[in-house]
Amino acid sequence: MSSTELALPELGYGAANVGNLFRALSDDEAWAVLEAAWDAGIRYFDTAPHYGLGMSEHRLGAFLQTKPRDEFVVSTKAGRLLRPNPAHQPGGLDTDNDFFVPDDLRREWDFSEAGIRASLAESQERLGLDRIDLLYLHDPERHDLDLALAEAFPALEKLRAEGVVAAVGIGSMVSDALARAVREADLDLIMVAGRYTLLEQPAAADVLPACARRGTGIVAASVFNSGLLAQSEPKRDGRYEYGQLPEELWNRLVRIAAVCRAHDVPLPAAAIQYPLQSDLVRSVVVGGSRPAQLRQNAEYAALQIPGDLWAELAEEGLIPA
Hints:
321 residues, alpha/beta, 8-stranded parallel beta barrel, two-stranded antiparallel ribbon, 10 helices, 17% strand
C-alpha cells in the first residue's frame, strides 16, 4: 500500500506531554492542551503506550471521543506491553523514564505477532476509539532489531493486510535502524525523531534515500532538538539529547539563528517548516504541555517563509543544498 493513501495533515500533535512527560498535568490541564491543539486546526495526533504508562492514550482517547471520527488521524505504537509492576511501592513514580505517573505498571518488550496484536488491542481499549489509523513499531533497536524484522514488522504488515490499520511503520531516533527497517520491511510511514531537523540532518544520508526508493513517507518529530530550536534566541546551556550541547552544534545553531533573524523569521517557525521542504515528509509532529505553545506552533506552521531563507542556509552549508 502506498503511504499516500493515508492522508496526514502537515502539522500533528505528539501527545507525550499529556502522559505527564517532564511534569505532571491534571486531567483538566491535559484536556486544555488537546483542546488548544484542536482549535488551532491540528487533526493528527500521535501517542504510545510508553507515554505515561498508558496515561497519554487514556487522556487523548477521552478527548478524541468527543470529536467526529472521520475528522482526525491517530497513530500509536507497539512493541512494549504494559504489565503490572511487582516492584511498585506506594508513591513510586516512573521518573526514570521522565514520566510523572505512578509506576504500578512496567513496560515489557514483545515483538511476537501475539504481542503486537495484544498491544494494538490494549491501545485501542485505552483510547476508546473504533480504529487506529497508523501503527508504528516503537524504538525496536533498543530491544532487538533483527527480531523486529523477523517477527514484529511482518505482524504489522499482516494487520494492515487485514484492514485492521490503514498504515504501518517504525518510530525511532536512530538513523541506522530507520534506514534498515525501510529497506527490509514493507512500511508506509516512518517517524524520524530528531534526525531530520533544521539543526542536524543525519537521516539525509541514508534514511531519505531509502524512503525515496521504497516510496515510504516520513513524519518528522522532535524537530526542536530537545527544545534548542523552540525559541528565537537559543541558550548555550540548553539540553541536547541526554547531555550537554557539543560546541560544534552550538556554533551551527548560532549561525542558523542569525540567518533566520536576518530574514525576520522566528527560529521555531523555520524549525517546524524545514522538514516539509522535502517531498518525502508528510507531516511534522510537535509536542507541548501548555495551550499557548500549541497555538504558537500552529501559527509558526502557517507562517509564510521566504525561499531566500532556505537558499541562504544552503549557501552557508547549514542545511543540505
